[in-house]
Design brief:
By secondary structure, the protein is an alpha+beta fold. It contains 9 helices and 25 strands. The chain has a 20-stranded mixed sheet that branches. A 3-stranded mixed sheet has the order 22-25-24, with helices on one face.
Length: 414
């Protein structure tokens, strides 16, 4: 599989006319091809062994090793690292072939760049070292884990069907996974969004779920019995279908439970945040702490009214000093800011720099470090989550957030 644009770049490489910009463009096209077929085609064009090894091969092999390392990480924690590979069910063995193809292409691109610089050394003037990395925003996509452990990448299934292991069916329609019909026996599926992905889900009972980046929801393919129970990690917004005969219960990080009959609310429960929070938009919810919060009680329950938020300090190994336990109720929280992610926005109002950087890490799949500590800056305004990281950082520079970007490592400066 190739395109005229790719073929033109290949011809320039073979004729020793390609520039570093051509190699960067070829790399971008390979990265954006979610099928992996372009990577295989390009690899085939450069399958002949390289005879001149005077270039800095160690540098390029180091990059290739990074790719393989990422592959190993994805095998141990697929929900956090796995990228879209194939539009249907796939196993780990299928994935490795593309990882090694990508690694070999990285080395090939290094060889080509070396030859271009050598053949054009009289005209080549080194440019100042600047960051040219363009970090794109997140997009729709998720990973579905079926009851038998099979994995389905939802990134590339456009308005298609997914056959589930219990015989029931689901389909993807415009960025939403919809469960159809009623299975005879419930089996549990897990939808997880890696960093840089967001997706929607329509549960078998008609409940709507918006799943933010680096989040997951575990749910049955059909609801039987006296309750509807799911498990949520990360951040999700839910519009629960009403059914007074079957209450809807959500286990949050195994530390908090939310019970509803029919309501709209947001849950924020990321592991790297201090607080678990539930924000009620409409209806009523009952929120219960699932770990000891006082000397004389094993749990604590509160009922929220619309326009209230319940905050609970995250437990460490489900234990907490009693004086730090218990719920804190926030009246009239800024719902617009809380739901900004669902509406495709970053809202900077009264957000700490560390909190905002957590959002950027999840949405752009980057690492943020503070070599000189976290600077004190005042943030304001809002911006679309559809902008590139580079565009967002340009806006933040005007707010006094100084930085340097090295690949996918964002370094915050004083």
């Amino acid at each position: 599989m190739s395109t005229p644009e790719v073929q033109q770049i290949i011809q320039k490489i073979e004729s020793d006319l390609a520039t570093p910009a051509d190699f960067r463009e070829l790399t971008r096209l390979i990265n954006e091809d979610e099928t992996g077929m372009l990577a295989e085609w390009v690899h085939a064009q450069f399958s002949a062994p390289v005879t001149d090894l005077s270039f800095d091969r160690a540098k390029w092999e180091s990059i290739a090793n990074d790719i393989v390392t990422a592959d190993k990480l994805s095998a141990t924690n697929p929900s956090e690292h796995l990228k879209p590979i194939h539009p249907t069910v796939h196993k780990a063995g299928f994935m490795h072939r593309w990882i090694w193809v990508a690694a070999s292409i990285v080395i090939m691109l290094g060889v080509g760049t070396y030859f271009w610089m050598t053949n054009n050394k009289d005209n080549y003037a080194p440019e100042p070292v600047v960051s040219v990395t363009e970090v794109h925003p997140g997009k729709e996509g998720a990973l579905l884990t079926l009851a038998d452990g099979s994995l389905v990448s939802l990134d590339s299934i456009h308005n298609g069907q997914v056959l589930l292991t219990d015989g029931s069916r689901a389909k993807v329609v415009d960025g939403q996974l919809i469960y159809e019909g009623k299975a005879k026996q419930a089996s549990y599926n897990i939808m997880s969004t890696p960093r840089g992905r967001i997706f929607r889900l329509l549960l078998p009972d008609g409940t709507k779920v918006w799943l933010n980046a680096a989040s997951s929801i575990r749910f049955p393919t059909t609801f039987n019995g006296k309750e509807r129970r799911v498990e949520v990690k990360g951040e999700a917004y839910l519009e629960v279908a009403k059914n007074q005969e079957m209450p809807f219960r959500i286990s949050v990080n195994q530390q908090m439970e939310v019970e509803v009959l029919g309501t709209h609310f947001n849950i924020n429960a990321y592991d790297n945040e201090e607080m678990l929070s539930t924000t009620l938009v409409s209806g009523a919810v009952q929120v219960t702490a699932l770990y000891p919060v006082s000397n004389d009680s094993d749990r604590m329950t509160i009922t929220l009214k619309p326009g209230q938020q319940a905050q609970l300090v995250q437990a460490v190994s489900n234990t907490r000093n009693p004086k730090n336990g218990g719920f804190k109720i926030i009246n009239n929280p800024d719902v617009e800011k809380i739901l900004a992610w669902k509406n495709g926005l970053f809202n900077f109002k009264d957000v700490s720099l560390a909190e905002l950087m957590h959002q950027l890490e999840r949405w752009y799949d980057i690492e943020v470090i503070y070599p000189h500590g976290i600077p004190s800056v005042e943030l304001t305004g809002e911006i679309s989550r559809g902008v590139t990281l580079n565009e967002l950082l340009t806006a933040m520079e005007r707010m006094g957030v100084h930085h340097t970007l090295e690949g996918k490592k964002l370094i915050i400066l004083p």
